[in-house]
């Protein structure tokens, strides 16, 4: 009987270790989803504090609703549905600042807020105010296609182009910064992480990318 007891004991240990590994992997996924990005904003740039609901920049995108016919009008966008509630499995805030020929333009409020056949709905990626804060409030840690929630998904919900020479219809060469560091990669691939600071500058002159201080508790 002793070999049987030993085998059962080993099996139990393997099961416990397997559950432990699964829990560790899940925790790693949560940590990665919520991680504050690096590099962090440069300490030499004085933070620009703002409060929830502040309007940052000049009004420019005045359509009501802000989502275009090509964007979120209640139908699924990139596999993301427009839901009747907000979710908290993943709840992170990134900030987007858009400059055109050196002047900051407001990122519209209510991007991702729409009307569906069932009534008012909200996409997992949206804005509440014209302060540039992008809210990711999703029922899962990753979008349906996998990877990170990205700036490309946000622009798809908005229904606006996002390329190296066209940002939401503003045409010209685009210089991008992430957390104060110049970014030369795919704009659509920029991840929306906790307190990620994204600056897109179209045309000239360019300005020093601001370092925003998120509102308390954001």
What does this protein structure show overall?
This protein is α+β, with helices and mostly antiparallel strands. It has 2 domains: 1-34; 39-213, no CATH class. 19% of the residues lie in helices and 27% in strands. It is built from 2 helices and 15 strands. The chain has helices spanning 2-34, 151-158; strands spanning 47-49, 82-83, 90-100, 103-105, 113-116, 119-123, 125-126, 133-138, 162-163, 166-167, 170-171, 174-178, 181-183, 197-202, 211-213. The strands form 4 sheets. Strands 3, 4, 7, 8, 12, 13 and 14 form a 7-stranded mixed beta sheet that branches. Strands 2-6-5 form a 3-stranded antiparallel beta sheet, with no helix packed on it. β3 and β4 form a beta hairpin. The longest helix is centred in the first third of the chain and has 33 residues, at 2-34. The radius of gyration is 21 Å and the shape is globular. Mean pLDDT is 86; it is low at 16-29.
Number of domains: 2
Structural class, from helix and strand content?
alpha+beta
Provide the residue-averaged pLDDT: 86
**C-alpha end-to-end distance:** 60 Å
Largest sheet: 7 strands, mixed
Listing every helix as H and every strand as E from the N terminus to the C terminus, the arrangement reads: HEEEEEEEEHEEEEEEE
Q: Beta fraction of the residues?
A: 25-35%
Radius of gyration: 21 Å
Tell me the total number of β-strands: 15
* Morphology call: globular
List keywords for this structure.
single chain, alpha+beta, 3-stranded antiparallel β-sheet, 2 helices, 27% strand, globular
């Amino acid at each position: 009987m002793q070999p049987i007891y030993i085998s059962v004991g080993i099996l139990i240990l393997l099961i416990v270790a397997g559950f432990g590994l699964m829990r560790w992997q899940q925790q790693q996924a949560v940590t990665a989803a919520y991680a504050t990005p690096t590099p962090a904003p440069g300490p030499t740039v004085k933070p620009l504090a703002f409060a929830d609901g502040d309007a940052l920049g000049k009004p420019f995108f005045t359509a009501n609703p802000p989502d275009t016919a090509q964007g979120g009008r209640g139908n699924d966008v990139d596999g993301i549905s427009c839901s009747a509630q907000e979710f908290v499995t993943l709840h992170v805030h990134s900030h987007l600042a858009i400059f055109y020929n050196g002047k900051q333009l407001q990122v519209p409020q209510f991007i991702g807020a729409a009307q569906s056949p069932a009534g008012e709905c909200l996409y997992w990626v949206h804005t509440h105010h014209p302060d540039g804060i992008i809210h990711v409030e999703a029922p899962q840690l990753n979008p349906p296609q996998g990877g990170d929630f990205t700036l490309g998904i946000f622009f798809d919900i908005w229904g606006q182009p996002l390329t190296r020479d066209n940002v939401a219809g503003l045409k010209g060469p685009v210089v991008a910064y992430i957390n104060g560091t110049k970014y030369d990669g795919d704009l659509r691939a920029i991840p929306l992480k906790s307190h990620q600071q994204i600056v897109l500058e179209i045309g000239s002159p360019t300005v020093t990318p601001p370092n925003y201080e998120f509102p308390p508790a954001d």
